[in-house]
Structure formats: structure tokens, C-alpha cells
Design brief:
mainly alpha, two-stranded antiparallel sheet
Length: 442
């Protein structure tokens, strides 16, 4: 058991026995350290979040059922059911087709794809999903999901910044603590290397930092007093981490997220009959002045990054993996290989190739429905915006369905809908600690 694993197990023991209100915070801390192991044995390891999620599964036994029949909850059940069925049957139904074996590495598999069959990856990915589902349901039941989401985004951001500082002064004593999963290929850390912090590679950091920045901005706008300044600092750190990652994922995801935001603002402006025109004009003029005065200086680093990325070996491997996965979708008749059967570069193609059209549709209905309802509730607007930013980032460059913060954000967006008609529990009588002034409260 690792050092972090010992601390986590001790905290979970206290939480499950005498301080159950600590559990959402502990889950958040574990979600903010997705590439750190609780247990490492030989060539395999168990992430911190999986252990925390298992504790949530135990705690579910003593918490009241939600009692909801909302269509997004039904989509969640359908998604889990289909994932279970196709993971159990997919490797048998489509045995022998060419796939990108997850443990073979993207570069090697693109050049020489493997063959679909049952493997340890099927069971591991299914276990990760079911554990994430347990954590999701528990956080919604006790209405602690917003707390967990805020904790995860802050922990990942602050510890990444701290490690980046330690690397700069060549005193990275935290490396062995965070880089503890034996089955993960961590990118190099050292002078001149791109920042990856507590994550496995810069693209994973970029996919995390964009939603962290989005959440912090919205939380700062909806807070007052010291909380506003704390969330502003968190936003600055998240943006700094995003820039230091120097990842193509950061550039593409940020551009796509900003474009989506501008479209939504334009639609909102039209639907509200032009309310806020003066602010719109001032904003447009400010952007125009910045573009004319310092536009070239701001665009130069981005252009250099794009030029370096396009045509590189990494670019060829990632685009090749995505192109190949279209063939996997066709070979499986749109049903998928099952979790752990194929690993492209994009989250969208990962869903389509492993869970097929049924699983992808169920997941899209779940996320879009929860975001739409969460955006109508002031307390969950920050997590809804963060979830959109995360999905955009993952579609650009990170394929994993088991990303802990993804399920924590889904749980946070589900709180106002799924727990609306839930039974009262003892957690409703004792508010959970909150990081957001307007966060979801029991």
C-alpha cells in the first residue's frame, strides 16, 4: 500500500465509522489525484478514487434511495446496463477483429493493431465504471456532489502548481508520492519539460485544467467576500497550469469551449431581446483593441505550438488511432467491442468503438439532460459549465471513460434533479462542508 493509500484508508475508516460527512470531501480529494495509487502490487495498481468509490458503495447500503424516475436517471441506468452487456458479450461476438489493444500503446498499435478478445482490461474498465457509478449515486443521495467537485478541482489544481514549483527549483520530492500507478506511462518531468503536475501527461492536465478554470470563474462570480478572492486565485492557477501544459489538447479544447460559450451568449442575447447591449459593445471594443495592439504577441505562442504539434509523431499516432477506430465501429455493426476492447485518442470515438451507438446515445442523453437542468439551478451552474468544458476537452484528446472528475461532475449536475423527491436522511440535518458559497446544500 502506498503512502497516499494508507492516509486514504485511515480517512475512509473514520468517515465510515464516525464522520460520514467527510466522505464527499475524501472522494473529491481522490478524484483530484486520478493517477495516484492506493495499492500497487507488481505491475498493477488500484487508483485512489477506486478505493474511495468502493467506500461509497458500502455507504450506499445505509443511505435512503433516491426514489426518482427522471428521464436522465433512466438514461444512467440504460447506459450502465448496456455497458455491462456489451462488455460481457462484445469480445465473444466480434472476436478476432482488429482493434487498438489498450495495453499495447497507441504508437505501436497504430502500426500493428491487435485482435479483439477477452483481457484483463475488460474487467478492469468495467469495475472502474461500476465503482464510479457507486460514487455518483452516493454523492447525489447525500447531496455532497458539489462539495466533492469543488474539492477535486481545487486539489488537482493546487497540487499541480505546487509540483510545478518544486520541479522548477529541482526539488520534486513529491514525484514518487503522486506517480505511483505501475501500469501508467508517466511523461518525463524535469527542466524544460512541459508541466503535467499530478497527472500522467500534459494532455491529461489540460483536460483537467480547462474545467477547473471554468468552475473557478463561475464560482468567483457567484461568491462574495474572501470566497471570491480564493476562487479567483484558483482560476489563475488553473489557467497557468493550462498554459504550462503546452498541449494541443489545451489549444483545441479552449478554442472549442470559447466558441460554444460565444454561441450560447449570442443565443441568450437574442432570446432576452437585446438586454445587456452596452456591455456587449464594450466587450467587443475591448477585444478589438487587444487584437490590434497585442494580438500578434498573444497568437505567436499558440501558432508555434500548433505548428509543432501538427505533423509530429504524436499527431500522426493520435489521428491514426481515431481514423482506425471508425473501422472498429463498422466491424462491430455499431454495437461496440465492450469496455477495454479498443483505445483511440478521442473520447467520442472511444465511446462509439467500445459501447457502440446505443451506449453513446445513452451517455449523450444523460450528460445533455443533466447539464440543461443544472444550468437552471444557480447552485449548480459552475459544475454544469465545468462538465461541458471537460467533455469538450475529452472529445479533443483524452479517451478514458473512467476519469474520476467526470463522474463527480455528473453527480453534481444530477443533485437538483435526482434528489428533488428523495427521502430525508440524517445528512440533511447536518450541512456538509462547502467550498462554494452558493454550493448545493442539504
Amino acid at each position: 500500500m502506498t503512502l497516499l493509500g494508507i492516509v486514504l484508508v485511515a480517512a475512509l475508516g473514520i468517515a465510515l465509522s464516525v464522520r460520514r460527512d467527510w466522505l464527499p470531501v475524501i472522494v473529491g480529494v481522490a478524484a483530484g489525484l486520478p493517477f495516484s495509487a492506493a495499492v500497487a502490487i507488481g505491475g498493477n495498481g488500484v487508483p485512489l478514487f477506486s478505493v474511495a468509490a468502493a467506500a461509497c458503495g458500502v455507504a450506499l447500503l445505509s443511505t435512503p434511495r433516491l426514489g426518482t424516475s427522471h428521464w436522465t436517471a433512466n438514461a444512467f441506468v440504460v447506459f450502465l446496463a448496456w455497458a455491462t452487456v456489451i462488455t460481457a458479450l462484445g469480445p465473444w461476438m466480434f472476436a478476432g477483429i482488429r482493434v487498438l489493444v489498450p495495453r499495447g500503446g497507441v504508437d505501436g498499435q497504430v502500426m500493428d493493431p491487435g485482435f479483439l478478445g477477452y483481457s484483463i482490461s475488460n474487467g478492469a474498465q468495467m469495475a472502474y465504471l461500476l465503482l464510479a457509478a457507486c460514487a455518483t449515486l452516493y454523492l447525489v443521495r447525500v447531496r455532497g456532489a458539489v462539495v466533492a467537485a469543488g474539492t477535486a478541482l481545487v486539489v488537482g489544481t493546487v497540487l499541480t502548481s505546487l509540483r510545478g514549483l518544486l520541479v522548477t527549483v529541482q526539488a520534486d520530492f513529491l514525484g514518487p508520492v503522486f506517480d505511483s500507478l505501475p501500469n501508467v506511462a508517466y511523461s518525463w518531468v524535469g527542466p524544460g519539460a512541459r508541466l503535467r503536475g499530478v497527472f500522467s501527461e500534459p494532455s491529461e492536465l489540460a483536460a483537467f485544467s480547462l474545467p477547473a478554470a471554468a468552475f473557478s470563474v463561475m464560482a468567483a462570480m457567484r461568491s462574495r467576500g474572501p470566497a471570491k478572492w480564493l476562487w479567483s486565485i484558483a482560476c489563475v492557477l488553473a489557467c497557468s497550469n493550462l498554459l504550462q501544459a503546452s498541449s494541443g489538447t489545451a489549444v483545441a479544447a479552449s478554442a472549442a469551449f470559447i466558441a460554444i460559450g460565444l454561441v450560447l451568449l449570442a443565443v441568450r442575447y437574442v432570446l432576452r431581446g437585446g438586454i445587456g447591449t452596452p456591455w456587449l459593445v464594450i466587450g467587443a471594443l475591448t477585444l478589438g483593441v487587444l487584437a490590434l495592439t497585442v494580438g500578434d504577441q498573444l497568437a505567436a505562442p499558440v501558432q508555434e505550438l500548433v505548428d509543432d504539434k501538427v505533423g509530429s509523431t504524436s499527431w500522426d499516432s493520435r489521428t491514426g488511432a481515431d481514423d482506425f477506430s471508425w473501422g472498429v465501429i463498422a466491424d462491430t455493426l455499431g454495437l461496440g467491442t465492450g469496455l477495454g476492447g479498443n483505445r483511440p485518442s478521442s473520447f467520442a470515438l472511444s465511446l462509439l468503438s467500445t459501447l457502440g451507438v446505443p451506449g453513446t446515445v445513452a451517455f449523450a442523453v444523460l450528460v445533455l439532460g443533466l447539464v440543461a437542468t443544472a444550468m437552471r439551478t444557480p447552485e449548480t451552474v459552475p459544475v454544469a459549465v465545468a462538465l461541458v468544458a471537460l467533455i469538450v476537452s475529452k472529445v479533443v484528446g483524452t479517451p478514458d471513460l473512467s476519469t474520476p472528475v467526470l463522474w463527480v461532475l455528473i453527480a453534481a449536475c444530477a443533485v437538483p434533479t435526482w434528489s428533488r423527491h428523495g427521502l430525508r436522511s440524517r445528512f440533511d440535518e447536518r450541512p456538509l462542508p462547502t467550498l462554494v458559497r452558493t454550493g448545493a446544500r442539504p
